[in-house]
Design brief:
The chain has about 575 residues and is of the alpha/beta class. It has 20 helices and 10 strands. It folds into 3 domains: about 325 residues, ABC transporter transmembrane region fold (Up-down Bundle); about 140 residues, 3-Layer(aba) Sandwich (Rossmann fold), CATH 3.40.50.300; about 70 residues, P-loop containing nucleotide triphosphate hydrolases (Rossmann fold), CATH 3.40.50.300. About 65% of the residues lie in helices and about 10% in strands. The longest helix has about 55 residues. It is elongated and about 120 Å long.
Length: about 575
């Protein structure tokens, strides 16, 4: 039940860039004009050299020689300015386009459902955002410019060669099919090799990210050396793939250079014979030779650019594969509007669920009703499916069968913003960000005032420890809240839900990992939070559910018992057995 990526065709990956480039059309037109002027100066250079040489060796005209030299200096000054403007415009445009593309990829990823992230490692996705998009940035910043420049040199050079001496032109162009064939043959191999390198980089990045995120576990089991060896092994794999790619690139460049400049030698030899025969002036030969070198260099550059294109296209394909991944949990085409304020009536009606078609059902025909303001506890052994129920209410996954309603409306007909804005989830392990206490509480409502943030912290009994922190609300909590205790993190998570002020609250094992004192403080905060709200308490420790109006027992994906705490204890069923076992412990 995870998102299904579609494999886009190679040209499609590049055409998808067009809408992102279109806003910069004016800048690109100016850059193109500058490129034309710079290329025209470069193509005119051999003709000027021809006149300069003829003036020096045939006409012996000192004044003409001086004028030609001045013209050359001015022309190259103009070319320098045009090159500066063209490179600046193209590079700055590439930076903006890739930044927007990176933003689009990130925005798309954070909207995909959790099922997608269970199958893709975080480090791999980070690599796509950094390494793959860096390749695309290089493609746009330099490749497009060089492709245009070398194409102009090739076309202009061939035309001017033909005008200068058609017979020598035939000799010059004889090497083109050989260069093109070599480029196509090695270009495809380069593409495969580059894709392999990028995939291995993504794997190594994912492994490093995973190790850093579990650094306490790594160090507590004294596995630093082993993790380092794993990373070294992955890096060695990257190096092997990169060396193989470098070999392909070196062979391509070497062959293309040899073929192209062998053609130049052939032109030089044939042109020299024509000069000896008096059919060609030395100046004409030099200008022709410069054009031949220009054409040969252009052909060689285009061949190498084709190799770079093949390398970049693999990265582009992976990036646009992410963009074209369709979420399994999608916004409805025409979302319904809930009555305001939301009452908080929640119902699961004949719900069945499995995480993937090949996996067994986690929930089987589960029906639960929560009236507005009612507190219902869901208990059961580990693996019974309790946390799955919490995820389905917030629609992190869609049910396989049956339906879930909020105030009588199927949650699949509501916008995700409306649904999730009405549900406050407090997980067993609260998710804190690496900012300040204030930022973590205000994450629920970034525009909240100082008074609102303090009121939420006070309601969650969090001010008791916040006031003792070095800078109070402005204290940095560290990555994942590592500078705070489990009870403190949980109270900040509760304060965040207080600030959100949802109609429905889901407490998913909210106190199971806390010590007795922390649990007492968190339970006091939860007493405040649950007042007047529809609440589903998912618990493993049964003493935390006595406040519930009803208790449901879930086992093997089915509701097997229902009643109050006292009724279920007296019933001598599963709940009674679990409760007595907990008392003995």
């Amino acid at each position: 039940m995870s998102e299904a990526p579609r494999q886009p065709a190679t040209p499609r990956a590049l055409t998808a860039l067009v809408p992102r480039v279109r806003p910069y059309a004016t800048r690109l037109i100016v850059a193109a004009l500058c490129l034309l002027v710079a290329a025209a100066v470069a193509l005119a250079f051999p003709q000027v050299v021809r006149r300069l040489l003829d003036a020096a060796f045939q006409q012996h005209d000192r004044a003409l020689l001086d004028n030609i030299a001045i013209v050359l200096v001015l022309a190259f000054a103009l070319q320098g300015v045009m090159n500066f403007v063209q490179v600046y415009l193209l590079t700055s445009t590439a930076e903006r386009v890739v930044a927007k593309l990176r933003e689009d990829v990130f925005a798309h990823l954070v909207r995909l459902s959790p099922g997608f992230f269970t199958e893709r490692r975080t480090g791999e996705l980070t690599s796509r955002l950094s390494a793959d998009l860096a390749v695309l940035q290089s493609l746009m910043g330099t490749w497009v410019s060089e492709l245009s420049r070398q194409s102009l040199f090739l076309i202009g050079g061939v035309v001017l060669l033909t005008l200068t001496h058609p017979r020598l032109t035939t000799t010059t162009l004889a090497v083109v099919p050989l260069v093109v064939g070599t480029a196509f043959f090695f270009g495809r191999r380069l593409r495969r090799a580059s894709t392999g390198v990028q995939d291995r980089i993504a794997t190594a990045t994912a492994m490093a990210d995973e190790t850093f995120s579990q650094i306490r576990t790594v160090q507590s089991f004294v596995r630093e050396a082993e993790e380092t060896r794993r990373y070294e092994f992955l890096l060695a794999d990257v190096v092997r793939a990169a060396i193989a790619r470098a070999s392909q690139r070196a062979v391509l460049f070497g062959l293309v250079g040899f073929i192209a400049f062998t053609g130049v030698v052939a032109v030089l030899w044939q042109g020299g014979r024509l000069v000896l025969e008096g059919a060609l002036t030395p100046g004409a030969l030099v200008s022709f030779l410069l054009y031949a070198i220009t054409v040969a260099a252009a052909v060689g550059s285009l061949a190498s650019l084709f190799g770079s294109y093949q390398e970049a296209i693999g990265a582009a394909q992976r990036v646009f594969e992410l963009l074209e991944t369709t979420p399994t949990v999608a916004e409805p085409a025409r979302p319904l509007a809930l009555s305001q304020p939301v009452r908080g009536a929640v119902a699961l009606e004949g719900v069945r669920f499995r995480y993937a078609p090949e996996l067994p059902e986690v929930l089987q025909d589960v029906s639960i009703r929560l009236a507005p303001g009612e507190v219902v506890a869901l208990v059961g052994p580990s693996g019974a499916g309790k946390t799955t129920v919490a995820s389905l209410i917030s629609r992190f996954w869609d049910v396989t069968d049956g339906r879930i309603t909020l105030d009588g409306s199927d949650v699949r007909t509501l916008s995700l913003g409306t649904l999730r804005g009405s549900v406050g989830l407090v997980p067993q392990e609260p998710a804190l960000f690496s900012g300040t206490v204030r930022e973590n509480i205000a994450y629920a409502r970034p525009d909240a005032s100082e008074a609102d943030v303090l009121a939420a912290a006070r309601a969650a009994h969090a001010t008791e420890f916040i006031d003792r922190l070095p800078t109070g609300l402005d204290t940095l909590v560290g990555e994942r809240g590592v500078k705070l205790s489990g009870g403190q993190r949980q109270r900040i998570a509760l304060a965040r839900v207080f600030l959100k002020d949802p109609a429905v609250v889901v407490l998913d094992e909210a106190t199971s990992s806390l010590d007795n004192e922390s649990e007492r403080l968190v339970e006091q905060a939860m007493e405040e939070l649950l007042r007047g709200r529809t609440t589903l308490i998912i618990a493993h420790r049964l003493r935390t559910v006595r406040r519930a109006d009803r208790v449901l027992v879930l086992e093997h994906g089915r509701i097997v018992e229902e009643g109050t705490h006292d009724e279920l204890v007296d019933a001598e069923g599963i709940y009674s057995r679990l409760y007595r076992a907990e008392l003995r412990d």
